[in-house]
Write a structure and sequence with these properties.
The chain is 43% helix and 26% strand. The protein is an alpha+beta fold. Helix 3 crosses helix 4, helix 7 packs across helix 8 and helix 9 crosses helix 11.
């Protein structure tokens, strides 16, 4: 009996110490919301706003087994490194593909967002795709804790994007959000603080880049890097016919001669090249609407569909989805920051609940 009482006293003392440590650590470290994306990572520090936006890339020197660069500096190395250095994206399709490198990247971003303070141990909320498995969710939590988080919590990216876009997610009304990131596209209908219907696919911005690269290789025997494919997507990419078509010169390596060469391509050809992944996004929206309860579907018809994520910036995508569904479609005010702002909003909710 005495042992039981002593164990209880020790447990109570431990909880008190834990609360005290949490209090002092929270004073040293500001809570953070993180959009851990396949292409880019954004960090929001409570009370400071978005303090970091960098590519989710890490450069590794295989001779010394050390990290050469992280983020923007590492992305500049993509396609330009010697054999001993690899520029790696540790996330694939919105989930962790390399745990150790993801942990290294997160630790770097956490400290950089905290101005390099080594004692930064924040409470972190990380946005993840709603369609990932429990094992993949735990991997994200573990990576955040190993990277220095005192606490790590997960929020589904569609919910975070809806909060960040300013949708009334807590009200009894249907809100549809389409979040198109680098690795995943997710379509969700949200009401009363929960996801009522949801569909996702691992086809998004990277697949659009691949479609552009494959088209240029097939039509012109020209090999281009991923950075060039992204530039083409930004400048010429569209999902709906433009009022005025544009063209640009593209430089790459000729697959026959092996020599550098250039070709001219136009926006109409690129629209045709990316039609398959874009059709997949439209079909996903239709599938989600089909699986949505009638009352919620009626709300969506009245209120419209909101696009978030980097893919929302593709010219004419809102017009195409609207034409295919007969529902108004709107692009969020700043689609690139919706998820990270949503994680910050969720942190505020947790802070208020805990007093």
């Amino acid at each position: 009996m005495l042992d039981y009482v002593n164990d209880g006293l020790i447990s109570k003392a431990y909880r008190k110490i834990s609360r005290t440590m949490r209090h002092w650590l929270s004073r040293l470290s500001c809570d953070m919301g993180i959009d851990l994306g396949t292409a880019n990572t954004l960090v929001h520090v409570r009370g400071q706003g978005i303090t970091l936006r960098e590519p989710s890339v890490v450069a590794i020197d295989h001779q010394t087994n050390s990290v050469c660069a992280v983020g923007e500096e590492a992305k500049r190395m993509v396609g330009r490194t010697p054999a001993r250095i690899s520029a790696i994206r540790p996330l694939r399709d919105g989930v962790i593909a390399d745990f150790e490198i993801t942990e290294t990247m997160l630790r770097y971003f956490i400290r950089k967002a905290h101005s390099g303070r080594w004692f930064a141990h924040p409470h972190i909320v990380v946005g993840v795709p709603a369609g990932i498995t429990e094992v993949e969710r735990r991997a994200v939590e573990d990576a955040a804790r190993q990277a220095g988080a005192w606490e790590a919590e997960i929020i589904d990216e569609p919910m975070a994007a809806a909060i960040g876009a300013g949708l009334p997610v807590a009200e009894p009304v249907g809100n549809m959000i389409v979040d198109i990131g680098g690795g995943t596209t997710e379509v969700s209908v949200i009401s009363l603080g929960g996801i009522c219907s949801q569909r996702s696919m691992r086809t998004a911005g990277e697949e659009i880049d691949d479609a552009i690269s494959n088209y240029i290789r097939r039509e012109f025997n020209l090999f281009i890097g991923e950075a060039t494919a992204e530039q083409i997507k930004v400048r010429l990419g569209s999902a709906f016919p433009r009022k005025e078509e544009e063209s640009m010169q593209v430089r790459g390596k000729n697959l026959v001669s092996g020599l550098p060469t250039s070709v001219t391509i136009n926006s109409g050809a690129i629209r045709e090249a990316i039609s398959e992944p874009i059709s997949g996004v439209v079909d996903l929206v239709k599938e989600t609407l089909d699986a949505t309860a009638p009352e919620l579907a009626a709300d969506v018809m009245n209120r419209g569909i909101v696009l978030a994520g980097g893919g929302a910036l593709l010219q004419g995508l809102d017009q195409l989805i609207s034409a295919e569904t007969d529902i108004p479609v709107y692009v969020a005010e700043d689609p690139l920051t919706c998820v990270v702002l949503g994680t910050a909003g969720y942190l505020d909710i947790l802070h208020n609940q805990r007093g």
